[in-house]
Amino acid sequence: MTLRISHGAPLICAILTLAASSSWAADQPAAAKSPSKSTHQVKKGPFKIEVKLDGVFEAREMTPLSVDAEAWTKLTVLEAVAHGTRVEAGQTLVSLDHEDIDTTIADLEAMQKLSELAIQLARAELKSAEAELPVDLAAAERAKRVAEEDLKRFLEKTRPLSQRSAEFALKSAQQRLEYQLEELKQLEKMYQADDLTEETEEIILKRARNDVEQANFFLETARSRTQETLEVTLPREETQLKDAARRQELALEHIKASMPLSPDRLRLTLEKSVLDHQQAAERLKKLKKDREAMAVKAPTAGIVYYGHCEHGRWSDSSGGKLTRGSSISPHAVFMTIVKERPIFVRASAAEKDLRRLKKDTAGYAVSVAFPDLKLPAKVESVAAVPTADRHFDARFSIEAGDDAQALLPGMTCHVTLVAYRKSDAVTIPASALFTDDADERKHYVYRVGADGTHQRADVTTGERTDDKVEITQGLLEGDTILTEKP
Predict the structure, then answer these.
(1) Domain CATH for 86
(2) What are 377's strand-pairing partners?
(3) What is the domain-level CATH number for residue 161?
(4) Would the pLDDT of 10 be above 80?
(5) Distance of CA 426 to the CA centre of its chain
């Protein structure tokens, strides 16, 4: 292969030579002349790390108050003690309107009495129904049997006999007419041959003719009755008897089918009535208990605070007012009885301060209201898990003497803790400390010699603040270092 070098080859060679020289120089520990950079002379002196937090004074003994009504939700205020009032145990704090609940309790008590009577009647009805079922079944079976017997008797005996009677009546009427006609005919012949007077003949013949006329009418009537009996009366009676027999059969089937259902229905109705009665009794019991809870009295002596305290923050569901006509929500804390002493300080610590808040770490709290009042404070506890805002709940015990009588729970303060203190610490500016790129756990500074040259020096660090770092190894008092990286 032939290597061709262009006109720029001398420049490239010069650059490569310079780069190699720089790399070799960087690997050599030889001191370099320090340019004009800012320096810092290392000294020993007091070094203190403080943690500053905003806190609030909180009572150790607080009794939240709520009306824990289970069945009654209408809680209307008539009168309430004012926020900040000092009260004694047993003192009435809030008067609530109880007219409606008293009326409801009275109505429910009356309904309970009626319910008890209804249950007694239902039990009696069930008992009667259970006793009547066999009787009703026997009656239905008997009625079905009678209806079937009546139908059978009609078909086998009554109808044939009635039909024959109707036919015989028609036949008798025909025979009577024949007899009367024959008798009239014989009379007419006889009277033509005898010597009777004409007047007597006329009377007898007239009677005979009348008998013929009556017999003729009776025959006509017999025909009509016979036709009606055969075509209307007997078919209708047969249909009625068949319908009656069928109805009794259906009635018996219905009774047999409903026998187990009817008592069950009554029994279920009774059970439901008993359950409703029990539920009403339970509601009545709860209402009476709610009525007692509506007499809000102070369980202990202390100061009345409207609302409730949670992690040092006060919130009030009543909007800060418990005036006549305002409402209270059941189970919601609307008032708290606070004991003035003992008190502690609660604060919210940022995650960066968490490692410095060790138990019994000492400091002081300064009231915002009384800045001249400085109270000794110690870390009492710190929450292991953060709150929703990624802060940690911290509690501090304080020594509140006679000079702190004016401090009340709810007031704010500033807490200052001395997390670290050393009287002869070697410290340097944070800007003068550098981290090894290859190992971030290693730190170093640039020490300046007497001739003005600087040289890297590895150091071991201790505690630090935002602007200072404690050096535990690698520097001595009187050393001079660069505050900027050369």
Answers:
(1) 2.40.50.100
(2) 363, 398
(3) 1.10.287
(4) no
(5) 64
